[in-house]
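Render this sequence as a predicted structure.
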Amino acid sequence: MRFYKPGIVAVATVRGVPNVRVFRTETFFEHDRHVWASSTLANSAAWHLESDVTDVRPLVVLDLDASERAALRKRALESFDFRSSTVAAIEQQTKPPKPAEPTGLGAVVEDDGRKWVHFGNGCWIMSVPNAALKTRTWDDFSSDVEVQP
């Protein structure tokens, strides 16, 4: 089994669940061996033993110095909310890319709660009746844009 340093963010198989985003931490208590935090529950757990995590595919390594590790440890001990902030950090760094632009005339996407219709030639028009004409290009959409069926 390969040993991973604290600070690594990866995708792994956790307790048999594939493709789980994980973050390798330090042990905070001598008796605690749960050194991996997952972004989602894997078999009802968010903290995992070294042996629970297999098929590790590293994404990034957060190279923390001693003072940063100490601050992280202090926050973890002071607040259970540490796990949710760790999850948010993992998810922020590993968001999927924006989908490919639908090119068909009349294609519909939703971005920030608004629907947009493809008019052709890379032009998108906001789908709001009786409103001022608003247009944008595909580059103007956020990475969270959803392509509608």
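Summary. DSSP finds two helices and ten strands in the chain. The chain has a mean pLDDT of 78.
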